[in-house]
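Help!! Second protein's tokens look totally different from the first
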Amino acid sequence: MLLLGILATVGIVQYGSYTSTPAYKARQQMAAAHKQAGQGQLAQAARTYQGLAIAGGAESENAGKALAELLDNECQNAPLSESGGVFAAAAQVARRDNAPWCPMGKAIARPMWPTRG
């Protein structure tokens, strides 16, 4: 019985330690942002992705790619209020020097609609 109590205590401490790491929290935020995007809350999802991309942590690259995906796939048919939030978040990420991997600069620079030649 004492051994079981010790093992349970060690397990609880280890779980608490794991769930308090920045990497775990970032994964949780990514999951929440994916859910928001799926529900059409693009601006809120973009703000979460922006924070993660700028932070430079474990999910930084994934957040930048998810933000680029919102730009490429969701904004064209979304309400302006949602699309505007995505573009604002993408612009902030694109300006950051600590995110050179992020494709935002290219995504923002290219026109979404055909231009007259």
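Here's the second one for comparison:
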Amino acid sequence: MTRSGRALITGLVSISLWVSMLAIGTAQQPIRIGASISQTGPYSAPGQNQLRGYRLCVKHTNEKGGVLGRKLELVVEDDQSQPATAARIYERSSHRTGSTPSSGPTRRPSPKLWPT
């Protein structure tokens, strides 16, 4: 191999390493979204539907490139259908996981029970 051939290969390897290090250096952490969802207890059935919906939204968003180029990560905790547990989850969420609490349980009476 000639001297110019070795120089070319060395240059290409150097550029490849530089580009790969640049990609590693600019890799961004995912956006963590916290959710308190009733996975157990009396509200577990609607909670499972809510969880499936959240996961589907995260999947579709990530498939389209995320938000501002960052992937989404869903952090879910079971509130056991208890308001006090949900409140503790929200208090811990931003400190422990670095996620932003965004959604939680909704407990509304059935429309069938509302007076007409």
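Reply: Different proteins will give different token patterns, so don't panic. The beta strands are 31-37, 72-78, 100-103.
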